[in-house]
Design brief:
mainly alpha; about 0% strand; about 140 residues; 8 helices
Length: about 140
């Protein structure tokens, strides 16, 4: 593939296609949660989730599908979502935010995605991750 033919992530469905469409995203989410179960730094993050991750896996897969430019499955099945509001009940701090990103980064590496795609995706996922952390911090401040 020529340099000029490389997909431009974030435009149209280029990110969705680079992820392997729904099958690739499903594999990524499965590996992400496997990493959450095994990485020591993700222990507190994993404890925020129920033992059965079936619904969490489906919701993250559906969310990522639409977020990456593919079918808007989350909205179709669950309605609209505001990411920080949907997570404000979790006690997300800097460590758990970083653990989440580490699990995703490791899943991307494990599944042998190209380095350019891995960097792009982690950079973009860090934005909502930080919004979630800030919302949790705000919620904790006003609950105290």
């Amino acid at each position: 593939m020529q340099e000029s033919e490389l997909p431009i992530y974030g435009q149209g469905d280029a990110t969705y296609k680079a992820a392997g469409e729904l099958d690739g995203i499903t594999a990524l989410v499965d590996r992400f949660y496997e990493r959450m179960d095994t990485l020591p730094e993700a222990k507190a993050l994993r404890e925020m989730h129920p033992a059965d991750l079936t619904v969490a896996r489906r919701k993250l897969t559906y969310f990522l599908s639409g977020w990456m430019g593919g079918p808007k499955l989350f909205k179709e099945h669950y309605g609209p979502i505001v990411i920080p509001d949907a997570h404000k009940h979790f006690p997300v701090d800097m460590d758990s935010k970083n653990a989440w990103l580490k699990c995703m980064e490791q899943a991307l590496i494990d599944l042998d995605y190209p380095e350019s795609f891995r960097h792009y995706l982690i950079e973009k996922l860090a934005i909502p991750a930080e919004s979630i952390r800030l919302m949790a911090e705000h919620e904790a401040k006003y609950k105290a």
